[in-house]
Amino acid sequence: MTNILGIETSCDETAAAVVADGRIIRSNVVASQVDLHAQYGGIFPEMASRQHILNIMPVIQQAMDDAHLNWDDLAAVAVTYGPGLPGSLLVGVNMAKGLAYGRGLPLIGVNHIEAHVYTNWLEIPGSGQYRAPEFPLLCLIVSGGHTELILMRDHGRYERLGGTIDDAAGEAFDKVGRLLGLSYPGGPAIEQAAKLGNSTAFDLPRAWLKDSYDFSFSGLKTAVLRVVQKYGDEITSPAERAVPGESPPPVRNLPVSDLAASFQAAVVDVLTEKTRWAAEAYGVRQVLLAGGVAANRLLRQMMIERVEVPVLCPPPYLSTDNATGVAVVGYYRLQAGQTSGWDLDVEPNLRLV
Amino acid sequence: MSPILNERTLDFISHSPAQTRRIGARLGALVERGDVLCLVGELGTGKTCLVQGLGRGLEIEGPITSPTFTLINEYRHARDELTFYHIDLYRVSNVQEALDFGLEDYLYGDGVCAIEWAERVEPVLPEERLWINLRYLDVNKRGILIRADGARYDPLLRELKRLAFGI
To answer: What residues form DSSP beta bridges with A289?
Structure first.
């Protein structure tokens, strides 16, 4: 068995995982900082890197223990080197370098976005017979920092069809969540609030951006703000509200559930339709979802309903940041003989294509 | 910030996001290394939109997207080595937090900085800076008030007035 240790510290999760043969999860450890950052309504970079330094050793040790492996059982160390927060990425990359060098193992730098995509190659315990995704395929990556529509013709062959031109989908969820007085992160909070709401209560705009696979969520966010302002007699500005430890004052009579449901429907509508168009235009065999927003149930449901080809999405615990995908990419890179040099450096603005 | 129009201010109405982007592009073509542009305005008033224009004026390649998630996005100029820093303090509530992530290194470096929610860190901003204040008027219209603080920005603002409005 080819065991790869994956390490991920690009944002606010310190994660390590061991994956065998690019598909069997032997361990998956994630130390989340979400509680720590909740008071800021998002990740706070300096604090994140300090926390990574505290977490990284115990998390890796735990991943090795859970996998019941010795260092000698590893074939390579794979690590996220971008995109992400520079200080956070550095912790993972330097740790990986030290481990790989000390143990004489190959070092493999992995793109964070690519790692999200490759969680779809993992065997999910209890899901029946394993089948690897089939090329050509289309992948929608949606998270707090990314919204990308990628065409994949083979391992490592990517073509970027579109992406957000302003706010990422997850960022829109976070900002709207804050406008509605919901907790951080906004994705799960809005999904929860939307359960009780009517998604057609508010006619919110969808930015179709004609003849393009790009996305825009800035106008939608502004539209929600206008509705909130209409209800609030004298709503305080977001600038005044951003006090750590205090939740924003709720606007009286604001139909939070209806607004959350209408907003969620608008985001999902655009994401689903553009993915469907691209899937048809490029004749792909499958559609993959990845990234934190892929955990949204409405998005999964609508994709499966509207897209003709099979839609794959990792279970929610693999959609949010973790290191299993890093190890899977590491496996395919190792097979192809593509390892990194000891001069591997972090690339905060790294792009997939 | 006084709304009174004088030679150190420019006050006008943008009628569309495209127009906001255009004034940003005009401004972007005039800025130089070390310049600090401070954007003030509520959510949805077009701060990121104006910065997208700046990027176009600065000849930055690739799309400029919201830096809310990362706090800072860095862009390289297509030809020379100029770096453009797009900073977003939406999630920052006081000066100390901004200093913690090294804001001063960017402000006093030799790149160009555009800072959204800049009013939150006013005490640490350079004495000389350009303020860009955006306010919501109606669905498409935004009031944009540009004010020069310091001698460096007087000629820049004069040039912007001449190029964009012929005044």
So the answer is: A140
Distance from CA of A283 to the nearest CA of B (A): 27
Read off the pTM: 0.85
- Chain B residues within an 8 Å CB radius of A220: none
Q: Which domains does chain B have, with CATH numbers?
A: 4-165 (3.40.50.300)
pLDDT tens digits for range B52-77: 999 999 998 778 998 887 788 888 87
In order, the DSSP letters of A276-340 are: HHHHHHHT-SEEEEESGGGG-HHHHHHHHHH-SS-EE---HHHHSS-SHHHHHHHHHHHHTT--B
Q: Which of A115, A212, A210 is nearest to A161 (CA)?
A: A212
| Interchain contact B83–A (C-beta under 8 A) | no
Residue A11: pLDDT band with limits 50, 70, 90: confident
Nearest CA in chain B to A218: B44
Instruction: Give the pLDDT confidence of B31-57 residue by residue, as tens digits.
Output: 999 999 999 999 989 999 999 999 999
Which residues does A contribute to its contact with B (CB < 8 Å)? Answer: 40-47, 85, 144-145, 163-168, 170-171, 174-175, 179, 218, 221-222, 225-226, 237-239, 242-244, 348-349
Instruction: Test B48 with A218 for CB contact under 8 angstroms.
Output: yes
Residue among A349, A324, A285, A336 at smallest CA distance from A124:
A324
Rounded to the nearest angstrom, the minimum Cα separation between A348 and chain B is 9
Query: Which residues 103-132 on chain B approach chain A with CB closer than 8 angstroms?
Result: 117, 119-120
Dmax over CA atoms of chain A, in Å, equals 65
ipTM (interface pTM): 0.81
